[in-house]
Specification:
mainly beta, 4-stranded antiparallel sheet, 36% strand
Length: 99
């Protein structure tokens, strides 16, 4: 069995704001997000129309990352498939993308 070698396509820090913001364009095969340990609140990742938890049943609430949490590896073709939003302006989300 041949195992393909994956290279780092990119990594970085994204400032997260309290309104849904599209992640930058970065082609990749695998992606992992991590909420900064120093965040004051939660960060959420998801699709267009992303919202934060608000106590109601809906289909727009993002996947929650508490401070220090990571998403695990996600198979995706581009970082720009994700939006981000947070509880507190200025919290950070880091990522590593493999190609």
């Amino acid at each position: 069995m041949i195992i393909p070698k994956l290279l780092i396509a990119g990594n970085g820090e994204l400032q997260v704001v309290t309104s849904a913001t599209l992640c930058p364009t970065l082609p990749c095969k695998l992606l992992k997000f991590k909420a900064s340990n120093s965040n004051a609140g939660n960060v959420y990742i998801g699709k267009s129309g992303l919202t934060k938890v608000d106590g109601t049943t809906d289909t727009t609430t993002g996947y929650r990352l508490e401070p220090g949490d990571d998403s695990g590896w996600l198979p995706v073709a581009n970082l720009n498939k994700f939006y981000r939003i947070c509880d507190n302006a200025g919290d950070a989300l880091t990522y590593i993308a493999l190609a």
